[in-house]
């Protein structure tokens, strides 16, 4: 439902629904990721970052799903510097992590950096 609200441009409904979800006190880390990506559709980058911090405090560390959600928000808004900073915090990037990173550089027209990270991904996954 969070994604549906975001896709239809209903930010107030998104916020209302998120309040209901949070009141259950059993919010999964994956749900944080979905909400972060939904906020990203509205350009609410700071709110997405705050949610990432909440998820990190809840789990003691960020899991790949939350990292990837935040990467997706940054890439969607051309914030590649923030992507690079976040990549430094990721202990073990996943294939999805590299997908966001590489696609972000391709969108920015930075083919050299995209290829550099593609090579890094190939080496880390022994492809």
TrEMBL record:
Keyword match rRNA-binding: no
Record key words, sorted: Repeat
A GO cellular component entry from the record: mitochondrion
This protein's record includes keyword Methyltransferase: no
A GO MF term: mRNA binding
Cross-referenced NCBIfam families: PPR
PANTHER family per the UniProt record, alphabetical: AGL218WP, OS12G0527900 PROTEIN
UniProt protein name: Pentatricopeptide repeat-containing protein
Organism: Ceratopteris richardii
Lineage: Eukaryota, Viridiplantae, Streptophyta, Embryophyta, Tracheophyta
